[in-house]
Amino acid sequence: MLASQRKQRILEILDRDKQVHSTALSQLFKVSEDSIRRDLRELASAGLLQRVHGGALPVSAAIAPYEVRKSVQTDAKRSIARKGAALINPGQVVIIDGGTTTSEMIKLLPQDMPFTVVTHSPGIAVGLIDYPAIEVILLGGTLFKHSVVTTGMTMAEAAARINADLFFMGVTGVHHGAGFTTGSYEEAGVKRLLSERASETIVMASHEKIDAASAFAIGDLSLASTLIVEGVLGEPLIAALHRNGVSVMD
User: What are the HTH deoR-type domain coordinates in residue numbering (predicted)?
Assistant: First the structure.
């Protein structure tokens, strides 16, 4: 079998099983693990998978630039955002992460419902200007342009003073083995910090994020109390969510 054929077969197995292991692939194709690791490196360089220790996972399409992501899975994001908005109650303090799904969610909030939004996303803050009943606290810091959110020590110090009811956390990957992941090391730390400042963490994930992974771990699935999705999840992910006590809204 040619290397190109082998790599195509690896991608087919990855699409079916949502993970591949180097040792198993070596035995399947009767080639050395060095050859398999080279295949995985080349596929990762082409953006076709995410390498992890011992193998690879499907790569998340949600790491594209913000303007590109706005046009991905728009109908699903609106449906997911509607379910998320319904979880917010009057008087709560709610941390809202940056992202395309949370941007859809704030459009669906009642303008006359009083509660407080804490966000490190200038876009989310500006999007709530015409909501007179919602108090908005914008956490300042260094602007991370890829996701249009603030990061850094200033943001972290301000967040440490917040005790919120809910945190709507954005992710780029939800996987039964890798947990919640994102495409930026700095952002992963910010999301962990914000999750610690809330009683409940809610993750809204459209289809391209499910059974996929990015380079940097935010945390295990147990980090979230609720996962909001659109459509049916695979059995491995359902089982992992159940083990970690995560409720699923679909």
Answer: 3-58
CATH number, domain at 196?
Answer: 3.40.50.1360
Residue 145 CB burial class (10 angstroms; 0-12, 13-18, ≥19): exposed
pLDDT in tens, 103-158: 999 999 998 999 999 999 999 999 999 999 999 999 999 999 888 999 999 999 99
How confident is the model over 173-199, as a mean pLDDT?
A: 95
Q: Does residue 239 sit in helix, strand or coil?
A: helix
> pTM for this structure?
0.86
Chain segment 27-71, per-residue pLDDT in tens: 999 999 999 999 999 999 998 999 998 999 998 877 766 555 555
| Domain endpoint, select from 59, 80, 102 | 59
Alpha-carbon distance of 237 to 177, in angstroms, equals 8
Nearest to 169 by CA among 190, 140, 153, 144: 190
Structural domains in the chain (count) = 2
Range of the domain at 230: 66-249
Radius of gyration (C-alpha) of the chain in whole angstroms: 19
CATH of the domain at 36: 1.10.10.10
**51: β partners:** 56
